[in-house]
Amino acid sequence: MEDVMAMAEEGRSRAAGGVPLVTTCGRRIEVTCLRLASADRPISRVALDVGPEQGGEPGVWAALTAEEARDLASRLLSHAELAESGPGRVAG
């Protein structure tokens, strides 16, 4: 088990040069690639880590398959377009 965890840590790579996105409300959002190497079944996931708020509230994380990550990206882009289109349109 220790070997798997060590390989998982080695397999993490940060996108955008390791710089997390910091929102205007102070939340840190980091996207990484998490790889768990095991002899019988290697696992790769896109890890989304929303760090703690400035006030110290705990953050959350999710490990997504490649398909789930693409679906989330599509949804985020759609809602960003709605947000930029101005008042009168409600995102669903």
Structure notes:
The structure is a single chain. Strand 3 (28-36) and strand 4 (43-50) form a beta hairpin. It is built from two helices and five strands. It is flat. The N and C termini lie far apart (43 Å). It has helices at residues 2-11, 66-84, and strands at residues 13-14, 21-22, 28-36, 43-50, 60-64. Strands 1, 2, 3, 4 and 5 form a five-stranded antiparallel beta sheet that branches. Residues 1-13 have low confidence and may be disordered. It has 92 residues and is α+β, with helices and mostly antiparallel strands.
Distance between the termini: 43 Å
Q: In terms of per-residue confidence, which ranges show pLDDT below 50 for 5 or more consecutive residues?
A: 1-13
User: Outline, from the CA principal axes?
Assistant: flat
What's the count of strands? 5
Query: What is the helix tally?
Result: 2
Kindly state the mean pLDDT as a whole number? 79
User: What is Rg?
Assistant: 16 Å
Main sheet record: 5 strands, antiparallel
Q: Which H/E pattern describes the elements?
A: HEEEEEH
